[in-house]
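User: Hi! I'm working on a homework problem where we have to compare a predicted structure to a textbook description. Could you give me the structure for the chain below?
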Amino acid sequence: MKLDNTMVIVADLGELKVYSVKKSEGMVGNEIKTSHALEVVNNIGYIDAHKKMGEVMSDSAGNFAGSAGEEHNRENERKRRSLKDVADDIDAVVKNEGPKQLLLSFPGDSLRKLVDGLSQNTRTILAKTVASNLVKTDKSKVLSHFEE
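Assistant: Happy to help. Predicted structure tokens:
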């Protein structure tokens, strides 16, 4: 996979990390070897994703009223909004940075929903997705997950 002008984004509902791929070449023996490394462009934290439902959805006295069904619906709505926030931030980064291609990692079953929430321009440059949470993965190992 060619990595010229490539951006790598790894995210979950609590954090988004944006990397640019930097190419370096060096001589090994009589051969020119090419390697790629990730350079941090941006790191965004999402505070609401770490809060408990009672901290987000309570009255002024701190009381959390409602049935279990309402709580489930609120949690689903909160997750939907968080996914939209992540998608909007990815769209903004792509618009500002202008990469030719994008590699994206997001945990499991939510990856498809996230991709569906991206703008058409972002989806057009989306070269590969990985349904895995790579936010805590060392940046030197992130690219290897996209080569599999």
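For your comparison, note the following. The chain has five helices and five strands. The first helix runs from residue 53 to 56. Good luck with the assignment!
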